[in-house]
Amino acid sequence: MRSLAADLNFGESPIPESWRGPLLRLAGVWLVLVFTFAKDWAAMARQWWDISTYNHVLLIPPILGWLVWQRWGELRKIAPQCWWPGLLLFGGAAFIWLLGAISGLDLARQAGAIAMLGASVPLLLGPQVSAGLLFPLCYLAFLVPLGEELVTILQMITADITVALTHLSGIPAVIDGVFIDTPAGLFEVAEACSGVKFLIAMVAFGVLTANVCFVSWPRRIVMVGACVIVPILANGVRAWGTIYAAQWFGAEVAAGFDHIVYGWFFFAIVLGLVILGAWRFFDRPLADPMIDAEAIGRSRLVGRLSAMQVRPAFALLGLVALMLLARGWAYGADRIAAPLPPQIELPAVSGWTRADYSPSIWWEPQASGADHRLLGSYVDGEGRKVDVFLALYASQGEGREAGGFGQGALMPDSAWAWQSPGRAFPEGRSERLLGAGKVERLAVTWYRNGNLLTGSNARLKLAVIGNHLLLRRRPTTMLIVSAEDAPAKPAADAISRFLSSTGPPGAWMDRVEQLR
Asked: Per-residue pLDDT tens for 209-264?
């Protein structure tokens, strides 16, 4: 009776005997990894399907299969082997996942889950096969839903390009952060207008084209550079076109034109122009193989690495042990919680009195998963008013991240929009918000964890990671001091005076916590 392995085929080319066992082991390991980290894979799949920024990622798996098929004719000449340094690579990938799990950073969890798939290839197939699959293994990175972190900077760049083109076209315009005021109305370069979705799709396309169509490294670099620069410039032109059309046809017509014409056709045209511009410089011959198995076999470095073989059973046991260690550590860290007081309250501040909270447009920061929340107002003797929001967390993790996406001063799905960075305050993150296109608000955010006082989400994440790695219990506090701009009473001035009365924000937050 023929075995299942003997019936496996790759298209018309039968799989050599030396490949059948290793491929079955790799397939089994991939199934186990996807099942073990199913929550992360399900989250990525939802993002690929539901979020337009990542819809292009749905094409990456078939592209990866095609890239492997391109190389199969040469790969089948190489004998796979288990390679013990692959455990170091797999351990590094598992550690990335662990850092994401204990910090609540989904991006790191997802990157780690994908990296574990990639790291299992050199572990179970060896360095020679991995050398032949180097580009597909690196291209796995485009499965990670990455790019939303660029939205803010792309908004600012697009706004600058747009207002420059608006001035060149003879239309008077005044820019304030991401808002552009013109005779036809006030335009916002919103998150959806940042161009991030086209940028990350173009980069994925550019990297693929650079590998498949070019041999020269300078040409590859130019291709990828063009796929970064062109979509950013094109998005600025798109935004300018909307403003220009609004001067002639009205803002509503221009907005509809932007979503229908530009959304469906403009960037397709830009992509076509990039391809046409690069076509004549393609330097890879059509019959040229993507890899050379003989050259890989002659490489001294790959030869030395290939000597580090290990039995398949040892490789599989090591992989399972590393995977279970990461899962167990994450499980233990997720159950660490610092003791908190049963109740907290905003303290008295010298020279300021508590007042009813009555913003002209409702503003309430997001603090999902916080154990305590406080929101109130203070007024001084000269009529300056500040709003104070404080959230206290016993621990940080999934669903309770002080610096997580959508958390903090900008209320999601509300009348408030991010406008620009605000005036700097020591250790804080300052942001200008615009409510309903007319009310300006300044919000300054601080995070407190142990002795750390910062406005940086990244520094907070690092502190939380350190706590969880050491299984250390420390609460996290988020403080947001905010004020609306008022005639003769700038928000920045009101916040500065309030902070001079409270003293250092870190010490003030400690008093509210009642833990020091």
From this structure: 999 999 999 999 999 999 999 999 999 988 888 888 888 776 666 666 666 665 55
Q: Which two tokens stand for residue 169?
A: 């076209």
Q: Which two tokens stand for residue 424?
A: 């700097």
Q: Contact at 8 Å (CB) between 338 and 394?
A: yes
Q: How do the residues of the chain divide into helix, strand and coil, expressed in percent and rounded to 5?
A: 55, 15, 30
Q: What is the pTM of this model?
A: 0.82
Query: How far is residue 214's CA from residue 221's CA, in Å, rounded to a whole number?
Result: 10
pLDDT tops 90 at residue 58: yes
Q: What does the alpha-carbon distance between residue 490 and residue 249 come to, in Å, rounded to a whole number? A: 37
Of the CA atoms within 13 Å of residue 26, those in its CB half-sphere come to: 23
Place of tokens 């947001």: 480
What DSSP element (H or E) covers 386? Answer: strand 385-393
Tell me the two tokens of residue 35: 């099942």
For the beta carbon of residue 507, count every other beta carbon within 10 angstroms: 12
Determine the Cα–Cα distance for residues 357 and 386; give it in Å rounded to an integer: 10
State pLDDT tens for residues 213-222.
Answer: 999 999 999 9
Q: How far is CA 379 from the centre of its chain?
A: 39
Give the residue, 6 or 173, on which the prediction is more confident.
Answer: 173
**How many other CB atoms are found less than 10 A from the CB of residue 377?**
19
Those residues with Cβ within 8 angstroms of residue 381's Cβ, 6 or more apart along the chain or in another chain: 351
